Prior knowledge:
With 736 residues, the chain is of the alpha+beta class. It has a nine-stranded antiparallel beta sheet with strand order 6-7-8-9-18-13-12-11-16. The two termini are 35 Å apart. Residues 1-17 have low confidence and may be disordered.
Amino acid sequence: MKRLAGICMTLAALGAAGIEDPVRFADPFVGTDNTKEVSNGNLYPAIARPWGMNAWTPQTGPAGQGWLYDWKDRKIMGFHQTHQPSPWIGDYGQFSVMPITGKSVFGEKDRASWFSHKTEQALPHYYRVYLADYDTTVELTPTERAALFRVTYPASDSPRFVVDALDKGSSVEVDVANRRIAGRSSKMNIRGNERHLDLKPLDCWFVLEFDKPFASVEVWNGKKLEKGTSFSGDHAGAVVTFAPTARGESVHVRVASSFVGPEQAARNLRELGDCGFDGLVAQGRAAWNESLGRLDAADGTEEDLRKFYTCLYRTLLFPRQLHEYGEDGRPIHRSPYGKGVLPGRYYCDTGFWDTFRALFPLLAFVYPERDAEIMKGLRHCLEESGWLPEWSAPFHRNCMIGQNSASVVADAYFAGCMDDDTARALYAGLVKATCATGSLISTGRVGYDEYNSLGYVARDGATGGRQSAARTLEYAYDDWCIWRMGTALGLPKAETDIFLARSANWRNLFHPGHRLACGRAKDGSWDPKFSPIRWGYDFTEGTPLHYTWSVFHDIPGLVAAMGGERAVEARLDEVFAAPPHFDGSFFGGCTHEIREMQIAGFGQYAHGNQPIQHMIYLYDYVGAPAKARHWAHEAMRRLYKARPDGYCGDEDNGQTSAWFVWSALGMYPVCPASGEYALGLPLFGRVDVSLPHGRRLAIRRKAGAGTPSHAWNGKREERPFIRRKDLLEGGTLTFE
Length: 736
Ligand code: CA
C-alpha cells in the first residue's frame, strides 16, 4: 500500500529532533523484583537491540526455572543469552558465560559471585557489574544477534572464562590456535501436550572469539571438568584459562549465535564490526534513541519520563526476530516447524492474547515498517505450520485462548502494513481457523463447532467446562475483525456476512438478570453458580466482571444490553469502589493474578492482567470522559513505578507497558482493528510523534475547566475519540 512505499525514504528524517538521548530514561531493572505469589512484572533486565534476535541478562537464578534474574538475589552465576518471553513459557536458544579467577569451577552455584546493585549499571544496550569474588568487572553490549564483552580482570595468575552450554543436549569445541570456542545448546522448556508434537527445540549454535590466548583448556562432561578441548553429550561446557593478567587488563569476548547453523553463527559475529567496545555501545545507544525518540515527550517530571521510556523500551523488544542474514545479505530463517532453512523474515516470542490489545496497535501506528515485516513473518508461520500463531515461542505453544491473530492482522492491514497478496494469504489463514482446530489449543478455534452452530462455546462442551465464555467473547470480536478485513478486501458479501452475524454471538452469553457474561451449557441453561467475582471456570484468568467488557467492537450494543449509559457508568464506578473480594476456588486458592488485584487498592479492577486493561476507556462511550481521564491517570500514577517492583502484575511481552505508552499519549485503542482511539489525557504537556513520510503529530495538554474536550488542528471536538487515519496526516491534537 501507499504508506509502505514511503517509509524507508523517510526513516532518516525521523527522530531528528527530540528529547536528548531518551534511552537514558529506560531502566531495565524495572519489573525485576518478583515472587511466585506476586508478580511486579516478572521481567529480567533484557539487554538487547530493539526487536533483536538475542537478548542478554545477568543470571541470578538457575537456567531453566523461569526466573533468570531476581532483584533480591545477591549472587550472579552467569551472563545468559535468552529468548524467554515469560517465566511461564520458559527459555530456548540459551547458554551462559562467566569470568572467574582462582580455582577452576563450573557449576552455577560453584561459580556464582557476590555482587551489589550499587556496582550494577543497566541501559537497554549496555550492562556493567562488579563481580566481587573475582575482583572482576564485566561489561556487555549486544547487537541483534551478537554481543561484545569487556572483562576487566585483577592481577591474577589464573584468569578464566566459563562457557556453559547447559543440559538437555549440548556440545563445545575449543580451538586453541584461533582463541575460539564453538558450541551448540538445545535446552528448552516444553510443556504439556506440546511434547506430543513432532517439534524439537531449535538448536542454537554459538561461537566466541577472544583477544587473549588460552594457556589451558578444560571441558565439562556433565559431571566434572576434565582436560580436553571438546565434549558432546547431555551437558557440555568449557573453562579456558588465560595467561596471567595485570590488574585492570581487559579481555574482549566476541559472541554470536545462530539457529541456522555454525557457519551462520560465525557470520553473525560480523555484526560486531571493528569499532571496539565503546563504539558498539554508541551504536546501541543510537539504535535505541532512533526507536524511542519517535515518541518525543517533554514537559513532565523526571519520574514520568523514566516510566514512559522504560515502558516504551519494553514495548520494542517483542516479537523478536528469528531471522538472520545469509551470505548474500538476504533474510533467512530456520523454520521452527522442521521445514529447514527458508528465505524470508520471521518474528516470534509473543502471545497475541496479551499483545493484540495495545502493543500491536502501537507498532501499526508508530512503527509500521516493523509491523509490515512481522506480517510477512506471520505468513511464513502460516505456510510452514498451517496456522497463524496465537502464542509463539518459537513455535505454537499450547496455551491461552481466542483467535486474536485476527485483530493483529486486521489492524496491520488497515494501517497499511501489508501488500494485497500478503493480506489475502493471511485472511485465508484467519478464515480457516474459524472452522477447524489443530493439535494444540492455540491452533484454530477450540469449540468452533458449538460456537458456529449454537452461537457460543458451551460450558459442558469441547472445552470441558473451561474458559467457554471467554472464548466466545473473543471469537465474536475476532469474527468482527475478519468481517471488516474481508469486506475491505472486496470479498463477496455471501462469504463475509457470516462473520458479521457471528460477531453478535457475545449476546448469547449475556445474562439478562446479572447483566454480565455468563457461561452456558449446550441445552441453554446458565451457570447455576454464577458469581461476578468468581475467577476461572468459564473465564480466563479473570471474572465475569472483568471479562464482560470484552465486546471491543460493539460497546454501544453492550451498553444497551447493560441498561444504558448511566447503568454502565455506575457499574464501572463500582468496579473501582468494590472491595477486592474474590472466589479462587477454580484454582484451589489465590493465583498471583488474583493477589495482584487484591493488593493494588483498585477494588475489583485487575490491571495486573490483560482482559480488563481497556475498561477505563469505556467511560468515553457513556458520556463520562472525565472519569476515563481520572482513572487513566490514577493507574499511571499508582500502578506503574520506575523501580524494580514497578509493575502491578506480569508485564507480558510489552502489553502492560504499551498500555502506559498509549495512556501517556492521551489515547487508547479499545477496539484495535477499528482504527479509532478512545481519548484520555496525556501525561506530558507535550509529546511529538514522528510519523512516516516525515509527518509529525503534536500532542499538547492545556489547562482548562469544565467538560473535557480536545481539538484536532484547532477544531474543538466533544466526542472523545479520534481516528488513526486523521492522526497519520499529521497535525496538532490539543487536550483541555
Ligand atoms: Ca497476564
